[in-house]
Amino acid sequence: MIKIIKYISLIAFLILIVLIQQSFFNALAPQYFVFNLAFVIILCFSFFEKYEDRLSLVAALLVGMLLDILSVYPFGVFIFTFLLLVFLIKKITLLFKGAGVLSFTAVFILSFVSFNALYFILYFFFFQAEDGIRDKGM
C-alpha cells in the first residue's frame, strides 16, 4: 500500500513540475533560454538512485510524454531525450563512483550541455526550416 502511494505521489509531483515548467517558466524566459525544471528533477532522480533501480526511467518516460503532449515538437522527442539522458547519467555515475560533488558536477554539466545541444538542433531543424519556407512565399 505504501508503494502505491509512493508512485501516485511521484506521478502527481511530476505532473505538477511539467505544468509549472510549461506555464510559468516558459512565459518568463527569453526566446532562446528556458530554465528546464523537469530536466533538473530527472537529473536528480537518476543521479541519486541506485544503479539497479528503474524509477528514474519511469519518471523520464512520464515527463517526456507530458512534455511531448504539451510541446510543438514531434511526439517522442522529449521521451527519447530524457530516456537517453537517464541512461547516460547512470553510465557516467558508474565511472565517477564515490567522487561526491565532483561526479555530480561533471554529470550535471555533461547532461546540461547535451540536452541543450539537442534542443538547439531540434529548434534549427523544425523551426528554422519552417521560417525559410514562409520567407520564400510557399
Q: Could you please describe the fold and organization of this structure?
A:
This protein has helices spanning about 1-30, 35-50, 55-70, 75-95, 100-135. By secondary structure, it is mostly helical. Helix 4 (about 75-95) packs antiparallel against helix 5 (about 100-135). The longest helix has about 35 residues, at about 100-135. It starts with a helix and ends with a helix. Mean pLDDT is about 75; it is low at about 130-138.
Count the strands?
A: 0
Q: Helicity level, as a percent range?
A: over 70%
Quote the distance from N terminus to C terminus. Answer: 58 Å
Gyration radius, to the nearest Å?
Answer: 17 Å
Largest sheet: none
> Low-confidence spans: pLDDT under 50, at least 5 residues?
130-138
Average predicted local confidence, pLDDT: 77
What is the tally of helical segments? 5
Order of helices and strands: HHHHH
Task: Characterize the overall form.
Answer: globular
As a percent range, the share of strand residues is under 5%
Structural class: mainly alpha
